[in-house]
Description:
Elements: H1 13-30, H2 35-47, E1 55-63, E2 70-80, E3 87-97
Antiparallel strand pairs: 1-2, 2-3
Helix pairs in contact: 1-2
Amino acid sequence: EMCGRDWSSDVCSSDLAIGAASQGARVAAMTNGDLLQGKARAERVLYQSIAAPALRSTHARIDREGPVPVAAVDMTLDLPIVGMFGPTTMTVTGRSLLESGSELVPGFAVE
Length: 111
């Protein structure tokens, strides 16, 4: 991937999307599966970054296929890839085990 960044930073757009999706999944997990809050958090985090123009869609869901339910946030972006003639679509997923909101880590606020 050719990083969408200013050259004073080593952070790629895909890195920012992974972080945003992970935060969204964590918020959804800590609010007993509130997918709207998880999706909103992921989008808010990404919209505050240089990756915002690349966002195509966001989808939050509860994955119940494994032994424990997991909150997941999928973010699809159109990102430039080195050697390609235009953007390539990439989907990243943040995942977090469902848990009680009473277990919030100090400093991590659910907005």
